[in-house]
Amino acid sequence: MLLIFCPCCGVERPETEFRYGGEAHIARPADPSALNDEEWAQFLYMRSNTRGLYAERWRHTHGCGRFFNAVRDTVSDKFVCTYKAGEPKPDLEALAREAAK
Ligand SMILES: [Zn+2]
Predict the structure, then answer these.
(1) pLDDT by residue (tens digit) across 4-55?
(2) CA distances from 86 to 24, 31, 40, 56 (A)
(3) Membrane spanning segments where (predicted)?
């Protein structure tokens, strides 16, 4: 069973308590009405779809209910770290170097 550490609760819980929320750190445009259709589609649908370390949003739906971010390796499905929403994105290249040791 995959366990995920919730940084809000401070506990590790089974993945069945969580819901995936897509790529993390996607900023909503400051003025959406100023975008053309292509730019709006880019914001809504286009994601990096990285192979390897990927920053994602998760929600502890059957726990505290809060959103948080996680870095997960999309190849091994292992969570490298989790952090609260609003905290800066970790240096993914440094984490990848650390994981390769
Ligand atoms: Zn929680």
Answers:
(1) 999 999 999 999 999 999 999 999 999 999 999 999 999 999 999 899 999 9
(2) 10, 21, 23, 13
(3) none
Question: CA-based angle 25:28:30, to the nearest 5?
Answer: 130
How far, in Å, from the CA of 29 to the mean position of ligand 1?
28
Distance 14 CA to ligand 1 centre (A): 11
Range of the domain at 92: 3-100
Residues with CB under 5 A from ligand 1 (ion): 6, 8-9, 60, 63-64
Retrieve residue 55's tokens.
Answer: 């920053």
Domain count, the chain: 1
pTM above 0.70, yes or no: yes
- The CATH number covering residue 91 comes to 3.30.2270.10
Query: What distance in angstroms lies between residue 20's CA and the mean position of ligand 1's atoms?
Result: 13
